[in-house]
Structure formats: structure tokens, C-alpha cells
């Protein structure tokens, strides 16, 4: 097998696809490893895989830090390279895995950004109109907030993923793990309205399985959904940056504020570890402290 880094990256990406990694995850690995390849091309005029060592990786970390990248971004990029070299080691392409000697920058602890319930309703109420595209946008945003699913999971939904009888949706998350998530009536009605309008549009073939389609009648992409959300945020009175993940954070925070137990939120979000979900308890604890300080006479 070739020792060219870019060729080996392609082999690694193919391996990820065979292991049922999501398209979003595979795309992130491709981007992060591509950045490392660009760095080695620039700094070393290309480099054989066996010449990549801990000094090269440390120099790359220094480069990222000098570029004012966030620690979470640097950590993700280095973990991508670490996974890549673990794959190469197990495939016996490299003789050793030196990542045990690399100090990976710790991720800064940032509380999730979320919208208040009032802000969330304001955003959803902004999406108004009679066209099929507006109806689609409304259904997508309602569904994101009603279920807390990831944007990549939303794009992968098919029409038969929904069960209108039980008010649930079948979702395939990270690692192709399947889970069933309840849906609120408003979101379900929005989706039903969109599907009814879709039947009358010629460009939308009845045989198309994807739930949400672009204007050409093809499955919508995560990038397109982010652009759509940006458009509606600008039309609302909200001034903060809002991403699909902000809506996911809002979903979890609002459930916990209303008394939902952590384990149930974990299952709905599709988190493998409860520790990942526990970050939202810090948000709700902060809220409770603020309420306490405002309300208690001896606070």
C-alpha cells in the first residue's frame, strides 16, 4: 500500500463508511485530516507517513494554537489524527503508535448555548407562509425543537420514519444506533401539512423516500438547513447566533427545567453516555441560582 498520507486518508475514510459512521462524522474526519495534510505539504513539502512523528504533531498543535483556534476545535482535529494513526497501526502500515506521548489540549468547559422558551416560540412563529418551501421550513424547525434530534439525523429521515399513530419518530444516530423519540402534536401537524402539499408538486416524486426535500425534489442537506435557519433568524427579532444545535440544546434545557429526568433526556438525545447529557444540568443549576438570588430575601 502507498505511504502517501492523502491516499491513506482515503483508505481510512472508506473504513469509516464500512463501520457505519454517519456522513457528518465522516465529513468531519475528511476535513480535519485534510487540514493536517495541507500542513505537512506546506511545512515539509509532503512527507512519507513513516516520517510523521510526535514532533510533527506537536508542531501542528502549535500551528493551530497560533491560528487562534478554540481548544475544542484543536482537540477534535488531534483526535481525528489519533484515530487515523490507530487505524494505520492496526493495519500494520506504521510500526508504532506514538500518540501515547502526545499531550492533547484539554477542551474548555463551555455551557451550551440555548434559547429561552419565549425566544424559541418567537423563532418558530416567524416561519409563516403558504408556499410548500415555507411549509417545509416550518416542519423542519418544529421537528428539530420537538425531538431534539441532530441536523444530520433530520436530513436522514424518511417518510416512513414517522408513526402518526403513536406520535413517534424512528431515528438513526451516531454509530447507526436506532432510537425512538416522541413528537409533539404541533410538529406532527406541521409535517403532515407539508406532506399533503408535497403531493401536488410535480417535482416531488411519490417514490421519493426522503422526508425533507430541496426545491429540486432531492434529499435536503445539513448545509441547506443551516442556511434556511439563518434566513428565518434574520427575519425574527432575535439577535444571537442560532444553529440547529442551539435548538437541540434548547430542547434538552427546557425539558430539564420542566422536571424531566436526566436519563429520559439522554435517551431522547441519543447520548451514549449520561456524562454527555449532564452538561445541561449545569445550565439548569445556573438558572435556579439566579431565581434563588432574585427571590430569596437572604440570598
Describe the protein's architecture and organization.
It is built from 13 helices and three strands; from the N terminus they run αααααααβββαααααα. 27% of the residues are buried. It folds into two domains: 5-101, Tyrosine recombinase, N-terminal domain (DNA polymerase, domain 1, Orthogonal Bundle), CATH 1.10.150; 117-294, Intergrase catalytic core (hpI Integrase, Chain A). 57% of the residues lie in helices and 4% in strands. Strand 1 (162-163) and strand 2 form a beta hairpin. With 299 residues, the chain is mainly alpha-helical. Helix 1 (5-18) packs antiparallel against helix 2 (23-44), helix 2 packs across helix 4 and helix 10 packs across helix 13. The model has no long low-confidence stretch (mean pLDDT 88). It has a three-stranded antiparallel beta sheet with strand order 1-2-3.
Give a brief description:
With 299 residues, this protein is mostly helical. The chain is 57% helix and 4% strand. The longest helix is centred in the first third of the chain and has 22 residues, at 23-44.
